[in-house]
Amino acid sequence: MPPNLRPLPKPLVDKIRTGVTLNTVPQAVVELLCNSLDAEARTVLIKLNAATLSFTVEDDGCGICSEDLELVGTRYYTSKLRSLTD
Question: Does the predicted model carry a pTM greater than 0.85?
Answer without folding.
Answer: no
